[in-house]
């Protein structure tokens, strides 16, 4: 471990740390250890038995000036959490919005089977959130959109997953087979 001890007129600093007064007994003990050629106890605890290289700079003709903080970029490595495809479970912006999406087009849910919530972001900027069983098909999502927003009944649109973007072309697949449980689906006009 490389440590730089800077001696100033009014105290000393380690690396670019705070000024430590010469008159403080702990600091005086630290400097005595250095004068005897020993590693101060404080540094021994800091480096946990590693080798210490203590360099010294003499600035005793100058008053201590707090150094400007230098930007140090993150040099570690990142770790991804979770799966590669995000499972986005979003709450509606208001209770009325959720009620509106459920009241507009009721979807028959079998409570004895597993269910999921799917958020649908429509081409007009609005969104629908609806519960479906895992066995519902992509066609059921399309039908739900048309029933909830009749303006889209005559529109030619596709359903697309979010990252990675994948067009859901086979509308006979179940939500589980299409791997779109607890996710966001985008409606795109052709």
From TrEMBL:
Gene3D superfamilies: Phosphatidylinositol 3-kinase Catalytic Subunit, Chain A, domain 1 (3.10.20.90), SEP domain (3.30.420.210). It is found in: Cytoplasm, Cytoskeleton, Microtubule organizing center, Centrosome; Cytoplasm, Cytosol; Endoplasmic reticulum; Golgi apparatus. Pfam families: SEP, UBX. One of its GO terms (biological process) is Golgi organization. Residues 1-65 form the SEP domain. Coiled coil: none annotated. Residues 111-188 form the UBX domain. GO terms for molecular function: ubiquitin binding. SMART domains: SEP, UBX. PROSITE patterns: SEP, UBX. Keywords: Cytoplasm, Cytoskeleton, Endoplasmic reticulum, Golgi apparatus, Nucleus. GO terms for cellular component: centrosome; cytosol; endoplasmic reticulum; Golgi apparatus; nucleus. Its main location: cytoplasm. Belongs to the NSFL1C family. This is UBX domain-containing protein 2B. It comes from Nothocercus nigrocapillus. The lineage of its organism: Eukaryota, Metazoa, Chordata, Craniata, Vertebrata.
